[in-house]
Amino acid sequence: MLRFSCYQRSWLFSRTIANRQLLQDRLCQQLWCEIEGEKLCRSKLNPPATGTACATGKWCMYGECVDNSTIPLRRDGGWSPWTDWSKCSRTCGMGVSAQNRECDSPSPLNGGRYCEGESRKFRACNIKSCPPRSKDFRTLQCESFNDVKYRGGKHEWLPVISDGQPCSLFCKPKDPQFRFSAKLASKVIDGTPCRPGSIDICIDGRCQAVGCDHKIGSGAQEDICGVCKGNGTTCRTVEGRFNQLAGSGYVEAAVIPEGARSISISESKPCTSFLALRADAGTYYINGNWRIQLPGDVSADGTIFRYMRKGTLEKIIARGPTNAPLHIMVLYYGFNFGVEYRYAVPLHDKKKEKEDAKRHRLLHEASYGWVHGGWGKCNVHCGGGIRKSLRMRCIRFYRGNISLVEDIYCKGATKPRQEERVCNVHQCPIWWAVSPWRTCSKTCGPGLQYRSVRCMHQTRNGTTAESPSHLCPSDKPSGVQNCIKKACHLNWVFGPWSQCHALCGVGYRLRNVRCPVEGKCAHKPRTRKSCFKGSCYDWTTGKWGSCSARCGKGMQRRSVTCKHRLTGKTGNTCNTGSKPASARECKLKECKKIDVVLETVCNKNKYSSKQCQAVLKYDLCSTRAWLDLCCKTCQDAGRL
């Protein structure tokens, strides 16, 4: 049975296995299998299948080796009673309270099922609003780290919302010179809003949806009128469109009344102008004071406005209700192709209904007016200049449409003066201008590189000019730096070549080569070269033989042999040009002169031609013996 169990679970292993029984006392707790062809066992920590034999007359049941006649009863787990609700995580603004229970009444046994359902549940508590001007709950959590050192220093922290991790505590230093954010806690305190203006809250590090009935996960939603689970019949929707094609500076498009909900403001088409939001008192919440801000959430008059921008298309939304009137503004920068707005107000405001009806009726009546055709270029690049409005054009507004018409139609409208606007008020930039580094002063080893460093500034007309160094911000960059192209190598020190290590033939010479500093010299020269001591073969001569004539001129001969100097072996590599003579003339005494007359003509030599030439050479024809041997040669030479 054990073998069957091992094969039954072989899918848990990546290779073919063969069973092997190990750890008899724990056999029913873990199944071990041997890898075929290897001397090792592996386990996936799973127990053998129920009914696997573990000993004689025993089998595995729920991790125990028991008698095979015993079948333990299975027991399913049961929940304990819920604990009391925990203390609320917040005193106001909606906190979280929790209840817990355990699967121990009873605990699962002998393969029984674990309890189904949640072991923990939450509910919202202390949902009443916090007192006016109370600090945001996430802000308080960031401020709790003000006295804790971070990267060696302390900071006053402000909250930052991470879109990807809204329930982690991210904070940034209040001091604007520090431009970073830090994750100071992996989880915010339960009950912290996931995002500003949202009723969804963080619980155990996760954002949980909260219904308008303040129940976690209920899915209940407010209608457009702000009524929880309402049907939208307690309010009316006001919709409008602002169609002024062009304008100058900030122009009011509409007024959102106090108590408005479900507010939506959007541009009809992408354009170069900008949406802005202004309070009744003149304070701007979004894009005021000629400054365009980044998209994000803004708190204004009792609600949170979300400013969104995709390319040049803008939108502003808010849940409401507002506690004061708000003015929708358009900051003209070129043209605007229309602004659409929508909000809901309570039905009981009859006076407001009449005002809105009149306002929107006027939008559909034809009207004419002057607009300037945008702005000209600024007369300077920096330091503050002037740009003027372009030629005035007459435009017609009718039923939401805008069109250019002849100037005569605007005869009754006051033509504005050409406008001027301050532009490029930013300070002319000043900076350190550095040239590229020059070539290193040394081809190897440590050297120096130089570059020019000058303080430069942009003039108002856009050109650049040099400024005194003390006017440039920050420290002056260095004009010199260390450099090294490559490591320098020392020269090798040579000794003299030795005598040739050979008595003859090819040998070798040696010399000592050393580096003054170990490892600092490159490409070591050779310390050995071949040499030649001359051929090992030389001519050896024997003793001269006796003279060939007893009187007069004769010849002496000796042996001349090419032999190896060391081995004595004969060879044929000796220099023939230096070969010693093997014969020489000799003369023991003068011979008595005998006049002889040849009676016959000699026709043939008795000696070889080579030998007779030697007789002729050494003038031996006058000797009778040689004459007989070489008569033909002597006769032809006239030596008879």
From TrEMBL:
<feature type="disulfide bond">
    <location>
        <begin position="54"/>
        <end position="65"/>
    </location>
</feature>
<feature type="domain" description="PLAC">
    <location>
        <begin position="598"/>
        <end position="638"/>
    </location>
</feature>
<dbReference type="GO" id="GO:0006508">
    <property type="term" value="P:proteolysis"/>
</dbReference>
<keyword id="KW-0645">Protease</keyword>
<keyword id="KW-0272">Extracellular matrix</keyword>
<feature type="disulfide bond">
    <location>
        <begin position="92"/>
        <end position="130"/>
    </location>
</feature>
<feature type="disulfide bond">
    <location>
        <begin position="28"/>
        <end position="60"/>
    </location>
</feature>
<dbReference type="GO" id="GO:0031012">
    <property type="term" value="C:extracellular matrix"/>
</dbReference>
<keyword id="KW-0479">Metal-binding</keyword>
<keyword id="KW-0862">Zinc</keyword>
<keyword id="KW-0482">Metalloprotease</keyword>
<dbReference type="InterPro" id="IPR010909">
    <property type="entry name" value="PLAC"/>
</dbReference>
<dbReference type="Pfam" id="PF05986">
    <property type="entry name" value="ADAMTS_spacer1"/>
</dbReference>
<keyword id="KW-0732">Signal</keyword>
<feature type="disulfide bond">
    <location>
        <begin position="88"/>
        <end position="125"/>
    </location>
</feature>
<dbReference type="InterPro" id="IPR050439">
    <property type="entry name" value="ADAMTS_ADAMTS-like"/>
</dbReference>
<dbReference type="GO" id="GO:0046872">
    <property type="term" value="F:metal ion binding"/>
</dbReference>
<dbReference type="InterPro" id="IPR013273">
    <property type="entry name" value="ADAMTS/ADAMTS-like"/>
</dbReference>
<dbReference type="Pfam" id="PF19030">
    <property type="entry name" value="TSP1_ADAMTS"/>
</dbReference>
<keyword id="KW-1015">Disulfide bond</keyword>
<dbReference type="InterPro" id="IPR000884">
    <property type="entry name" value="TSP1_rpt"/>
</dbReference>
<dbReference type="InterPro" id="IPR041645">
    <property type="entry name" value="ADAMTS_CR_2"/>
</dbReference>
<dbReference type="GO" id="GO:0004222">
    <property type="term" value="F:metalloendopeptidase activity"/>
</dbReference>
<dbReference type="InterPro" id="IPR010294">
    <property type="entry name" value="ADAMTS_spacer1"/>
</dbReference>
<keyword id="KW-0325">Glycoprotein</keyword>
<keyword id="KW-0677">Repeat</keyword>
<dbReference type="InterPro" id="IPR036383">
    <property type="entry name" value="TSP1_rpt_sf"/>
</dbReference>
<dbReference type="Pfam" id="PF17771">
    <property type="entry name" value="ADAMTS_CR_2"/>
</dbReference>
<dbReference type="Pfam" id="PF00090">
    <property type="entry name" value="TSP_1"/>
</dbReference>
<dbReference type="GO" id="GO:0030198">
    <property type="term" value="P:extracellular matrix organization"/>
</dbReference>
<protein>
    <submittedName>
        <fullName>A disintegrin and metalloproteinase with thrombospondin motif</fullName>
    </submittedName>
</protein>
<feature type="disulfide bond">
    <location>
        <begin position="103"/>
        <end position="115"/>
    </location>
</feature>
<keyword id="KW-0378">Hydrolase</keyword>
<keyword id="KW-0964">Secreted</keyword>
